[in-house]
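Holo prediction. Input below; ligand is magnesium ion.
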Amino acid sequence: MKQTLTVLGATGSIGQSTLDVVARHPDRFTVYALTGASQWQRLADQCRQFKPRYAVLADPIHAASLREALAGTDTEVLSGEDALAQVASAHEVDTVMAAIVGAAGLLPNLAAARAGKKILLANKESLVMAGDLFMRAVQEQGAQLLPIDSEHNAIFQCLPPGFTDTAHAGVSSIVLTASGGPFRGWGRAALDAVTPDQACAHPNWSMGRKISVDSASLMNKGLELIEACWLFGLRPDQVEVVVHPQSIIHSMVRYQDGSVLAQMGNPDMRTPIAHALAWPERIGSGVADLDFLTLGSLDFEAPDLDAFPCLALAFEAAKGGSASTCLNAANEVAVDAFLDQRLGFNDIARLNADVMTRLAGPVARSVEEVLAQDQEARALANQWLRHGNLSGSK
Ligand code: NAD
Ligand code: MG
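Structure of the complex:
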């Protein structure tokens, strides 16, 4: 039987890679819904190709343009947050690709979890901001989480089949590999003047702008560390981060007997996407075979926490409470401001540290509490942007 998919964030980098894999296997997949924020022309093209039942745009004005473009087709156009949750939880849907960027992914992802769907999780921010609630919803409703983030997908592949509870698998730690981003080897002083375009020019991966900046600041590895703790039931001290500039080993699992299992491949997100789409089977992804003879060497080095303090902040936030919710919200505001050239690169970490330290408290017990913590952190981050620090604010 065909797998019926909703692709949240279809117009983005992960969404487009997902549809590339789906198009290679018309016998396996049908598309129920595709969603985007405002890029209605791209979504219109995708709808003509994949003929989903629904297309959803977060923005109602662009949704009107999309409706016009798709007039006469079988695709119905919806808009708004509730519609995202609706297509993520509809009973016709088997699998939801969760590829919205940032906190905007939380409610649709939670709707999918509460409806017991198979969730292919790219949107790490929803676990960072609400890991406790999200994992509980997954467990209570029998949803299935398959990681798309290449590191977590690698770890999933290196664990015993179908295993996500590391406590009983003889795992001693996991090793998250990091490319080091475009500024690997740079000192803090040199990072003061870097531009958004420099930060977004990732040496190995082609990605959306937010995650590209996070990769440049190593915040992405920090978010991934928190994501790994939730996905695999680990304490932060069981997660090691190693810089591996070639991005060929996507992460590793260390076992108590001294074995280390690694997953390798060319750096192309279609590999983890195809893995999760077909799991436990394997299908073609369009990714070129890894050629060991032209690879050269695989190098490893320690991350520079002085130049990239966001990673240290995430280790702190991973200890629990609301710190990771606050850190995620502050970072989204900071990255937006950096991309708009309203904030320097090194100020991203300063803003994040100040907001997290000021606000961190107990973990939220409801979605409403998570959203309130998120809003409070965004308000404080915006205040930081106005004054260049938090001194003087209460
Ligand atoms: P992107 O910016 O290319 O795409 C983001 C998608 O989310 C787009 O479809 C956009 O329309 C949609 N979106 C943005 N704001 C929205 C809103 N308010 N409401 C509804 N939809 C909204 O980002 P990306 O690189 O594809 O990343 C998506 C997610 O996957 C992120 O959480 C990222 O951390 C994660 N991820 C990406 C990669 C990668 O290689 N790109 C790798 C690992 C994890
Ligand atoms: Mg990753």
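The chain has a mean pLDDT of 96. That is the main takeaway for now.
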